[in-house]
Amino acid sequence: MQDTSDADSFTSNLSSTHSATSSVYDFVEEHGRTYHKYKQGKYILPNDIEEQNRLDLQHQMALKVLEGRLHLAPIQNTVKNALDVATGTGIWAIEFAQQYPYASVTGTDLSPIQPEFIPDNCKFEVDDAEDEWVFSKQFDYIHIRFVMTCFPNPKVVIEHAFKSCAPGGYLEMMDGVFPLHCHDDSLEDTVLESWSKGCHEAGTKMGRPWDNAPNYKRWMEEVGFEDVKERIFEVPTNPWPRGRRAKELGMWFNADLQEALSASRVLYIKVLEWAPEKTDAFLQEVKSDLMKREIHAYMLIHVLYGRKPLQ
Ligand SMILES: C[S@@+](CC[C@H](N)C(=O)[O-])C[C@H]1O[C@@H](n2cnc3c(N)ncnc32)[C@H](O)[C@@H]1O
């Protein structure tokens, strides 16, 4: 892993395609978007400002789902060491550090896209969560959110979390499931349905199916977490449902999805091998479907937490 405050001196030793002097701050540019350079190609989605804005929007949606809370696990105010795996822009880690000023909060990611000015009790490191975790301390709270596009074997990451969790500490996970769901037949045969199935198909083709979240509870229990609690939320794709909370959730998720469309372009072009012109025309149609309130689509979001036994 690499502390990003010292990133300029970092020397990549990861693959022959990297120059020996490449810095973790280097990005790879393709079709007008940028991607992570450290372990280049591991993660398919971009890491540029456009994507960072999307992640920050998605964070607001996640807060809305949890009614303003950063976590559901019953952690104490005395939490000492917290870890946010695949932290993205670090927005969750920064807010957690502000909420728990006595905690020391570490965020890790393949991309050093976190801001420079952060609370004193927060730091970021470039790290691949699939590698062995070599932290010098154990964490009493580990958080992993929105990683459905990330790991070929999420259970390995859950195992790493178990080993790095202090006895009595918690792992909390929050993740969505694709394809989209619908309570009636209004999603059937729409371009929106086809897009959500296409994303899932691309993920599956890359060995990272987007429907792993329903397995998290079992995997957490199998690696040793106890008292694993799970809640499942329905998040509408726009404000189509009645009720203030559902409408607000729909507005946030819609904003996230609008941004996600251009990030998903790479899935269609690179993984499903569609022509760029066909992809762009298709995404325009998806954009218009996303605004239709007569399509009653929603995404399932699973939130789980479990405790590492004291013994
Ligand atoms: C959809 S974003 C979620 C970011 C953040 N967890 C949040 O909820 O705002 C997924 C993040 O996982 C990171 N990522 C993907 N594969 C990773 C890996 N093997 N190790 C560490 N981070 C990874 C990506 O760089 C990206 O920032």
TrEMBL record:
Q: Which GO terms describe its molecular function?
A: methyltransferase activity
| UniProt entry keywords in alphabetical sequence | Methyltransferase, Transferase
Q: Which SUPFAM superfamilies match?
A: S-adenosyl-L-methionine-dependent methyltransferases
Q: Which organism is it from?
A: Hyaloscypha variabilis (strain UAMH 11265 / GT02V1 / F)
Q: Which GO terms describe its biological process?
A: methylation
Record-linked InterPro entries: SAM-dependent_MTases_sf
- Supply the name of the protein: S-adenosyl-L-methionine-dependent methyltransferase
